[in-house]
Structures are given as structure tokens and as C-alpha cells.
Design brief:
This protein starts with a helix and ends with a helix. Helix 3 packs antiparallel against helix 4, helix 3 runs antiparallel to helix 6 and helix 4 runs antiparallel to helix 5. Helices cover 75% and strands 0% of the residues. The chain has one domain. It contains six helices and no strands.
């Protein structure tokens, strides 16, 4: 069942993935320019980094926290949209945004530890540079929401609009990581297929 779901996800992502700089993000074949269609990547991980990735417990932690965060996001998004549509449930929406932000902080800290274990630096490892850049924007917007909640000065509608902005960037960031996960799966499958 899980294999069927991940295969379907791979096909869906492949349909809409039009990044011409495939080697930068660890994909195997480029689409444009000189050498298009040839092997262009050294991959996301060196053999040593792949060994570290598979060995560290932080890989499992990230694998558990990411879907938990996404589920919390979906619930929170529903509560925020409900408030914006009906004016009811402001407290529930606010609590859900705070919970989502705390989970985001947790996944960010554990993700930095994971990067250190695998790439020997806490953030902005070349293989995950752009994901980390966008993650910083996600963190900044969520933190701005918390600051506005504590300090005040924004109307409830403005608070929810800020949360939606944070959530929009979070969706972009989640898509980046899904593409990277897919690239890693393809990279891992390539040696097995060659054998």
C-alpha cells in the first residue's frame, strides 16, 4: 500500500516537475542545454553521507515529524479558513497555529541536527541549500505570527492573513522537500537497477 502511494506521488511530481537545473537538486537527467539527457548529477549524497543518513536516528525523527506537521497544518488550515468564512472559532484557529509553529520549531531544530550528522554542517548544506533558505522564511513568518499574538496590534483578520501567508510559504517548502525526497529515492534505486 505504501509503495503504491509513493509510486503515485512520484508520477504526480514527475508530471509537474519542470526544473531545468536537475543536477543541482540531485536528479539524474537534465532537460535543457548542452548535455541534456545525459547523466549530469553526482547525486544528493556521497556514499559516506548516505551511510550517515541511514545510520543516524535523526532520519527517522524527520520522517515522523514531517507527516505529523503536515497533518497539523491541514487541521489548522481548516480552522483558519472556517474562522475567515464564519467568524467563529478564533481561539481554536489561534491554538492550532501556535501548535503548528511549535512543531515547526521542533522539526527545524531536529532537521539542523540531521544536516550536521549527514553533511557536517547545521544548515545550508549544498544539497539542501534552497530548502533551508525557504525554511528560514517559513520560520520568520510563523515567528512574526507569535510575536503579533503576544504584542498585539493586529486585528484577528490580519492575524489569520499572516498565518495564511506563513502556510503558503510552508506549502512551497514542503513541495521542495518532497522533490528532494523523490530525488533521493531515485538516486537510491539507480544502483539497484544497474545491478
Amino acid at each position: 500500500m505504501i509503495s503504491t502511494v509513493t509510486d503515485a506521488m512520484d508520477r504526480l511530481i514527475a508530471r509537474y516537475d519542470s526544473n531545468p537545473w536537475r543536477s543541482h537538486v540531485g536528479r539524474r537527467r537534465g532537460r535543457f542545454g548542452k548535455g541534456a539527457g545525459r547523466e549530469t548529477s553526482t547525486g544528493l549524497y556521497t556514499p559516506e553521507q548516505r551511510r550517515r543518513r541511514d545510520k543516524t536516528r535523526w532520519t527517522l525523527v524527520q520522517g515522523v515529524l514531517a507527516p505529523v506537521q503536515f497533518l497539523v497544518f491541514l487541521v489548522s488550515l481548516g480552522l483558519v479558513l472556517r474562522y475567515l468564512a464564519t467568524g467563529a472559532g478564533y481561539e481554536a484557529a489561534t491554538l492550532s497555529i501556535v501548535i503548528k509553529t511549535l512543531i515547526l520549531y521542533t522539526i527545524m531544530v531536529t532537521g539542523a541536527i540531521w544536516e550536521k550528522a549527514v553533511f557536517d554542517q547545521y544548515l545550508f548544506a549544498p544539497a539542501f541549500y534552497w530548502e533551508d533558505v525557504v525554511s528560514m522564511l517559513v520560520i520568520a513568518l510563523h515567528t512574526a505570527y507569535l510575536a503579533a499574538l503576544v504584542i498585539g496590534g493586529l486585528t484577528p483578520f490580519e492575524m489569520m492573513a499572516l498565518a495564511l501567508a506563513a502556510y503558503a510559504v510552508y506549502v512551497v517548502n514542503a513541495a521542495q522537500f518532497l522533490l528532494k525526497l523523490r530525488a533521493a529515492r531515485l538516486e537510491s534505486a539507480a544502483p539497484a537497477a544497474a545491478e
